[in-house]
Amino acid sequence: MGLALFGTDGVRGVANDTLTVALALDIARGVAGQLPRPARVLVGRDTRVSGPMLEAALVAGLTECGVDTVLVGVLPTPALAHLARAMEADAAIMISASHNPPQYNGIKVIDGSGRKWEPEQEAAVERAIQRQAWPRPQVERVGSVLHFEETAVGLYRRHLVSIFNGRLPNWPVVLDVGHGAAAFTAPPIFQQLGIPARVLNAEPLGELINVESGATHPDVVREAVLRHQARLGFAFDGDADRVIAVDHTGHVIDGDEILYLLARDLKERGQLVDDVVVATVMSNLGLERALGRVGVQLRRTPVGDRWVAKVMRDTGAQLGGEQSGHIILKEWTETGDGVLTALAILDVLARRPHALEETKAAVERFPQILVNVPLPQRVDEWRDVPGLGSLVASAEEALGDEGRVLIRPSGTEPLLRIMLEGRDVTLIQEWAHRLETGVRLALESAEV
Prior knowledge:
Blueprint lengths: L5 E2 L2 E5 L6 H12 L7 E6 L5 H14 L3 E7 L2 H10 L4 E5 L8 E8 L7 H13 L13 E3 L1 H16 L8 E4 L9 H7 L4 E4 L17 H11 L3 E5 L6 E5 L4 E2 L1 H14 L7 E5 L4 H9 L3 E5 L3 H11 L3 E3 L5 E3 L8 H14 L3 H8 L5 E7 L13 H12 L3 E7 L5 E8 L2 H21 L3
Parallel strand pairs: 3-4, 3-5, 4-7, 8-9, 8-10, 13-14, 13-15
Antiparallel strand pairs: 1-2, 2-6, 5-6, 10-11, 11-12, 15-16, 17-19, 18-19
């Protein structure tokens, strides 16, 4: 079945509108139905105002079904994934809408090994919600609630410090924690590692999370790096599973350049398994060409870091990620971790001080154009749009080896996303217009 609730990264919606207390309660019940008995689930959240409300609903649904629940408080998604493994939980649930605005929230489920749930498991929860089928309350089995908020985030901080202690340069940096979960982790971790850090947007205020700050607004940290003459800057999103970096010249370093930097370092040290890096179809063609020149193959996946993680597991790849700044370093984690990635960048630069300059020179950006066309309803396959297949084939022929076309339905909205990439900006602009026009004409003449 197609997923109506779960998208590429859990359930997302506007709190008290599309993401309600009733829905959160049912999601918890559906999750409980997929777990063994007895079961223990961790529940964490970012700083959003609606977080405690949804937390209460999840706790009610889990405990009603006899599942013991551990509240770990405000922390990053990767911290929750680490704790799920360290505490041998059966699952963990993160309440966060990641990089989305404050009025949004989300629910994503993580298994006991720290991996996001498979689509089949999410589909089972959706079926349970549709049928209202889950473990019925029993008088003799009400789940317990354990409060672990004061201790949980400290375990994660000690974990990251133990990895990099004594390895990093004490260069001055700027951290933009975006009023999100990174406020509880990044500043103390950098301090413990002896790295002087100027912190921006440090107040963990849910009404300001991601507002003109953090990974989606890198100009904020860029300006601070230049003003304070810092060596580097790092900007995190609301749940700190992604990072965007800025160097001392103000150059913004996105996930593609981070992947190149880390991949080249791993390869030169003989630690890049099979000389493969995993990234999504959204990564720039310039990254693929740059990796190829140093003998590294780029293996592409559908959009979503869950697919990157899956291919990494299937192939044994050590490094993968997304252009948006989700980076997975398999040596230490199964999920994107913004703070871990920032420390890994500093670790590379401690050994190769000019690695960022080399990265900027190597990764030539191919221009990209992205067009979103509204659809009357969500579709699973872009080929359902009449006549679009032949138009795409013509565009691909016109671009040849110097470009590519990517058409994909949105995983969360009734939109068709059209992306073109190539050296010739005029050519990709022309074909973007032709493709958009073709879709709109098809929609006017036939229902999709």
